[in-house]
Amino acid sequence: MFTPIFRRQLLQSSKHARCFSSTRVVATADVKHLGVIGAGQMGLGIALVAAQKAGVPVTLVDTNQASIDKGLKFADKLLAKDVSKERITQDQADKIRSLLSTTTSMDSLSSVDFVIEAVPEIPSLKFSIFESLAQICQPHTILATNTSSISITRIAASTTKDPTDTSASSRVVSTHFMNPVPIQKGVEIITGLQTSQETVDTAIAFCKKMGKIPSQSADSPGFLANRILMPYINEAIICLETGVGRRDDIDAIMKNGTNVPMGPLQLADFIGIDTCLAIMKVLHEETGDSKYRPSVLLGKMVDAGWLGKKSGKGFYDY
Ligand code: NAD
């Protein structure tokens, strides 16, 4: 059941957008070409699943050629595994792979119908990307973000210098996929104050086409998934740094005691220690609530470059 506040926020965003927006966004069936920005663990997963399940061509943009190369290698590995387990045929794998194209220039997104941004969780970086997307993309293109914690209303506002012009901001929405994208079914759909109902409907329908199960959340710090998950991970790190438990004991008790596939410290490594810190900072700063204070050890690990699985070292060595 939705609480009255939650219902009001959801309704408020679509009502505002209906009043202010007359932009026609693309109907779901017309999403013929997807753009994904950021070829890291999330962007690559989103691109691969879109090609595999929704069958659309995907243009994957990353400013770092090494990330693109690493991502494509990983995609090849996942597809080869699917073929070896007879989940798909070699022909199907080749077809999926042929749908993925890569580039280092965002200008290549001028013809896509739907774009999903998955660059690091740095507000100024996301704002500048959405400002550019509003210029580069077509007037019907849905502009989605995979942010874990940054306000969708604020990201949408970065598309224009004139807040009364909602032609681009009404097309901004969050499609917050869960990690690892090829495995996790859940996706959070978060609307900003400016987001139009058509944009929400298209985002939900496209995520379903990708085989995902959408949940809706209001635009509130951490949304639903991370507001619940990150304080849990942060508390596990505080338990480690204050000596309440050792790494293996912390992970073992949660894994064996709550029937989850991995403990909170290993999960932090898989998510990315930098991503965990960024989300805790947003929760702490935006709510002003001390219960969201990031653990000191979390900050130190980022300073050391121990970002988890992606950097080869985190709470565990990879
Ligand atoms: P990542 O560090 O693995 O990948 C980010 C990629 O973006 C890198 O390849 C980097 O080269 C690229 N990039 C940086 N600046 C760019 C630019 N200007 N243009 C194009 N590409 C650029 O990060 P990630 O874990 O994939 O996270 C991406 C987003 O997804 C973040 O907002 C994060 O909060 C969110 N998210 C992460 C998880 C998770 O478990 N890691 C889960 C859900 C959501």
From TrEMBL:
Q: List the keywords (alphabetical).
A: NAD, Oxidoreductase
Report the residue ranges that make up the 3-hydroxyacyl-CoA dehydrogenase C-terminal domain in this protein.
222-318
Where exactly is the site Important for catalytic activity? 176
Q: Part of which pathway?
A: Lipid metabolism; fatty acid beta-oxidation
Q: Which GO terms describe its biological process?
A: fatty acid metabolic process
Segments forming domain 3-hydroxyacyl-CoA dehydrogenase NAD binding: 34-214
> Which positions in this protein are listed as binding NAD(+)?
38-43, 62, 121, 126, 148, 179, 310
Domain of life, source organism: Eukaryota
Question: From the Swiss-Prot or TrEMBL record, what is one GO molecular function term?
Answer: NAD+ binding
- One Pfam match, given by its short name, reads 3HCDH
Q: Member of which family?
A: Belongs to the 3-hydroxyacyl-CoA dehydrogenase family.
Q: Protein name, please?
A: 3-hydroxybutyryl-CoA dehydrogenase
To which species is this protein native? Venustampulla echinocandica
